Amino acid sequence: MTLALKPLQLGHLRFDLPVVQAALSGYSDTPMRMIARRLGAPYTLCEVMLDYFVLQVKQRRRTHHLMHVADEEHPVGGQLMGAQPDQFGPAARKLVERGFDVIDINFGCPVKKVVGRCRGGFHLGQPQIALEIVERVREAVPISIPVTVKMRRGIDDSAASREQFQEIFDGAYQRGAAAITVHSRTVRQRYDGPSQWDFLRELKQQATGRVLLGSGDLFDAPACIDMLRSTGVDGVSVARGAIGNPWIFQQVRSLIAGQPLPDPPGLREQREVIATHYRLAEQLYGAKRCLPGMRKFGIKYSQLHPCHEQVRADFCTVRQPGAWQTVLDKWYAQDGPGVHPPVEEPNPMVRSREFELPLC
After folding, report:
1. β-strands 147-152, 49-50: how paired?
2. Which residues are CB-contacts of 241 (< 8 A; sequence separation ≥ 6)?
3. For the chain, which end, N or C, has fewer CB atoms within 10 Å of the first or last residue's CB respectively?
4. Residue of 109, 118, 290, 316 with catalytic role
5. Residues 267-280: pLDDT tens digits?
6. What is the pLDDT of residues 240-252, one digit of tens each?
């Protein structure tokens, strides 16, 4: 039996699948986004960029990758974060000039050094400044460019924080936000403990006619379906669950179509995708500069291998371009079954499921 879901609408943009890839600091660059799109993601966001950095960076060979958008990945969103409202508008215009189709404003980052510099989640404690930022971005870019917002459910669980959240949430839509993504943990909670999906359900019930996306604890395809069903949100934004597992979008499509959860990709398919990801990164960054970033991805990709601890260790040792191919030849030369990646922090609202890990 198929799951009846409405297409996701961001302004004039319409997506057949209400499951998108979130902005991921240090990860969601052009190669990751391209791989996700090829494996079923309808929309992806670039890793968050600081407003002042966007305004200062020059178009040079050494920096061309920083705001790079490939032809095949449209539509794609660019996410902005900063402290000063007057910098957001000019930075948003520059992102549009560089080819981004949506501007997303980050009011959700909980990282201590970010909040300490009055960025990201810090703005949830100052509604007037947050809404000024939304207004300045909306006025700065063409009406054809949707403006969206990323939030957490508040600084903390106090009544004052809830009131501030609601003021920003309602005010952002009133100032032209096409959609808001809410991560259902607080800023103080950071990434600890389960996210509160009940909060998303209650929020959607009172946000009639507004486009709301949910985020938090979406580590596999069934969790995406569970959030859509249990909260009623219009879409979900997959963050850590998409790193090293771009197949999550294909798997969601199968579940929505009423099919069983597909088997994890086999080793031959994993090899092809990992090799393609590396090639895209090498083309963008160069043979040497792509290696640190790709080691991070290799660690995540290794979770789908039945001998993941050994594979992870070998990816960590890659220091020369040729060594990447050596790891693929050692661990992915023969086809065989893959495994589902472990669920890092299972949410109690996600129905129980267990995947067997073959012995090496």
Report:
1. unpaired
2. 218, 219, 220, 223, 248
3. N
4. 109
5. 999 999 999 999 99
6. 999 999 999 999 9
Active site residue 224: no
Give the Cα separation of 294 and 272 in Å (integer).
15
- What is the Cβ-side half-sphere exposure of residue 61, based on CA atoms within 13 angstroms? 3
Taking only the tens place, the pLDDT of each residue in 49-61 is 887 778 887 665 5
Q: Is the pTM of this model over 0.85?
A: yes
Q: What are phi and psi of 100, to 5 degrees?
A: -75, 140
In order of 150, 177, 255, the CA distances from 139 in angstroms are 18, 11, 40
Tokens at 255, concatenated: 């579940």
Strand-strand pairing, 147-152 and 212-215? unpaired
Over range 68-91, report the average pLDDT. Answer: 94
**The token pair that represents 4 in the structure block:** 């009846």
Question: Residue 37: which residues within 8 A CB-CB, separation 6 or more?
Answer: 44, 72, 73
In this prediction, residue 59 carries a pLDDT of 64
The residue whose two tokens read 């070998």 is 314
pLDDT of residue 195 exceeding 50: yes
* Intra-chain end-to-end CA distance of the chain, in Å: 37
As a whole number of angstroms, the distance between CA 353 and CA 167 comes to 38
Task: Report which residue type is found at 94.
Answer: K
- Residue 351 banded pLDDT, cuts 50, 70, 90: low
* Average pLDDT of every residue of the chain: 91
Q: Which 3-state string (H, E, C) describes 185-219? A: CCCCCCCCCCCCHHHHHHHHHHCCCCCEEEECCCC
C-alpha 73 chain-centroid distance: 15
Query: Could you tell me the sign of the dihedral formed by the alpha carbons of 216, 248, 64, 275, in that order?
Result: positive
Closest by CA to 15, choosing from 34, 39, 45, 41, is 41
At residue 253, does pLDDT exceed 60?
A: yes
Q: Which residues of 72-102 are buried (b: 16+ CB within 10 A; e: fewer)?
A: ebebbbbbbbbbebebbbebbbbbbebbbbb
